[in-house]
Amino acid sequence: MRRRRLSPSAEFLQWFGLGGAALAWAAQLVIGFGATVARCGAGGARLGIDLDTWELTTFAVALAFVVAAEAAAAVTVARTWGAAYDGPPPDGRRRFFALGALVGNLLFAVVILLSGIAVVTFDPCRQA
Amino acid sequence: MSSHAAAARTRTARSNGWWGMLLFVATEATLFGAIFGTYYYLRFTNAQWPPRGVPPPDVTLPLVLAFLLAATAVPMAIAVRATRDGALSRARLALAVAVAVQAGFFAMQISLFYDDLDRFSPRNSAYGSIYFTVLGAHLVHVAAGLLLVAWLLGKLTRGLTGYRIAATEAIAFYWYFVDLLALLVVAAQLSARV
Q1: Which of A50, B17, B87, B153 could form a disulfide with B166 if both were Cys (CB 3.0 to 4.6 A apart)?
Q2: A19 vs chain B: nearest CA distance in angstroms?
Q3: Of residues B12, B20, B26, nearest to A3 (C-beta)
Q4: Who among B12, B16, B23 is closest to A93 (CB)?
Q5: Each residue of A64-77: pLDDT tens digit?
Q6: How far is CA A63 from CA A19, A21, A24, A106, B179, in A?
Q7: Among residues A9, A14, A3, which one has the least CA distance to residue A98?
Q8: What is the pTM of this model?
Q9: Domain coordinates of chain B in residue numbers?
Q10: May I ask the CATH class of domain B3-191?
Q11: What phi and psi, each to the nearest 5 degrees, are found at residue B158?
Q12: CA dihedral A50, A56, A57, A60 (to 10 degrees)
């Protein structure tokens, strides 16, 4: 039996819904870490990096990605309404991923929110 | 061959259970990425590693144990193959071998962990903190894997179903990850000797 292929847009929504928020968090973490090292390191002191602007920008972009990923997951859930989450692929698989993404993306939203608040609240150039 | 095994052999897509395990392992890899990142960050920002007064870790026994644990990937792979072939007794034997070696590894590592606690504390240095965090996190994952394999072995004593074939694939995947971690943990321990 030949497997039914998904349309490119359905496939994109499935994978973006599942991985978009995780990638946004990873990017926020790496960019934030890099900007902090550049700002606080001996070589970066004279570069005039405005850390709060960098952090708030990455925070806003990451949060926008999470909202978009959550929307993509919600659309996928709606489009696979009749399928069971443990059913065969492609619809069962899409629903399974989308339901997992709906919950997981909320966690990523909280993580991004908390780290965004932390980096603008605490002094980045002082070691604990 | 049972109808479940025949269905598993003709299936071209991975089960949702396997994909769920992949996502779970991805989150665990993130956790261990952070832990190993912290270890090597501390390792390379401290001239004295381990600090004075802390003995360097023994590596011979942990190295042997890590390779022994990594070798259990073979019986796990045999178990996966056997369940797909419907060879239930071969699958049970492979899982029994795997669980025996895994339990031996776990018992030895717990003993080494307490020996290390007698020699230095996780409270007195960054080295102690991250050393016990790395070892402890890995041991928790070994314990979880051990319970999963033992649970699977118990399930397979009552026959083969499609659900159990998928569970074998998912648990084996988790175990390969634990094996990889064992090698990374011992590599971190070895790095303190360099």
Answers
A1: B17
A2: 10
A3: B12
A4: B16
A5: 999 999 999 999 99
A6: 14, 8, 8, 11, 35
A7: A14
A8: 0.83
A9: 3-191
A10: mainly alpha
A11: -105, 20
A12: 180
